[in-house]
Specification:
With 295 residues, the chain is α/β, with parallel strands linked by helices. The chain is built from eleven helices and 13 strands. The strands form four sheets. The chain has a seven-stranded parallel beta sheet with strand order 3-2-1-4-5-7-11, sandwiched between helices. The longest helix is centred in the middle third of the chain and has 20 residues. It is globular.
């Protein structure tokens, strides 16, 4: 197999690299030389590449696949970071490009289900940037006849990515009457989806969610129970408007039920953590906190 280039290698990228390395060459692109050295010390070949600067990206001569995990900039309506990366690939012709987007592009549907064919009218600027990036990468691949997979990813959780600090700080949750459906994916299931997207002859948009639609409040209560922490206080939606940050409130109010049929049927991924209780337990175990977990 040719080299797989991971553009951005943070929380998800590191776990993906470790999964791919036993079976194919991998090179990770990260922003700083210090990050590249840290990854190299952990056994992940890495190069520094500032996608916000003028420097060119060093492209492996045997480039066969790209997984783009870097987020867009924090402002604007487009993703110039992605455009510079694609320009730097020049005449390279990878067999597939996998782009990690967000289910936020569906906006607020009032809790109604969405699949890959649903409209994408996001209200949040961050999701509009993701949608613009989707269009950019689709057009780039289309002009070159390359296979393109866009993964619209729900909220990622896993080891060291659980809402423990929110629980310890006493942040309230909205009561069931005011809560809409939630959507999430364990990081190791996301890695399995990325691997399947590289290997299977699938293209287009694929939703990445575990199919469990319990609300954010219910998920927080689950984490609290398993981690042996006090259950979060329940409040009405109106009370939450006064107690939660604007960002968290906007996240809670963007309600939709993300369907994952393509993930299961087309990519053929068998989710290890379709039940978030199993995913939270395993996350706590990896963090060394399972001994403090509740019954």
């Amino acid at each position: 197999m040719g080299t797989c280039l991971l553009a951005g290698c943070g929380y998800t990228g590191v776990r993906l690299a470790r999964r791919l390395i036993p079976r194919r060459p991998v090179v990770a692109l990260v922003r700083s030389a210090a990050s590249a050295a840290a990854l190299a010390a952990a056994g992940i070949p890495a190069r520094a590449a500032d996608l916000d600067g003028p420097g060119a990206v060093e492209v492996p001569p045997d480039l066969a696949a790209v997984v783009y995990l870097a987020p867009p900039p924090a402002t604007g309506e487009a993703d110039p970071r992605l455009r510079r990366f694609l320009d730097s690939l020049a005449e390279a012709r990878p067999e597939v490009l996998v782009y990690l987007s967000t289910t936020g592009v569906y906006g607020d549907t009032g809790g109604r289900p969405v699949d890959e064919a649903s409209p994408t009218p996001p209200a949040e600027a961050s999701s509009r940037r993701r949608l613009a990036a989707e269009g950019l990468v689709s057009a780039w691949c289309g002009a070159r006849g390359l296979r393109c997979v866009i993964l619209r990813v729900a909220g990622i959780y896993g080891p060291h990515r659980l809402p423990l600090e929110r629980l310890r700080a006493g942040e309230p949750v909205v009561n069931p009457e005011g809560s809409g459906p939630g959507n999430r994916i364990h990081v190791d299931d996301l890695v399995a989806v990325c691997e399947a997207a590289l290997d299977r002859a699938v293209s287009g948009v694929v939703n990445v969610a575990d199919g469990d639609h319990r609300s954010i409040g219910a998920f927080l209560e689950l984490v609290a129970r398993l981690a042996g922490l006090p259950a979060p206080r329940r409040v009405t939606l109106e009370e939450a408007r006064h107690e939660l940050s604007p960002g968290m409130l906007a996240f809670l109010l963007a309600s939709r039920e993300v369907l994952n049929r393509r993930l299961v049927e087309d990519l053929g991924v068998r989710l290890r953590y379709a039940d978030p209780e199993a995913g939270v337990r395993e996350s706590l175990r990896e963090m060394g906190l399972i001994s403090s977990a509740a019954r």
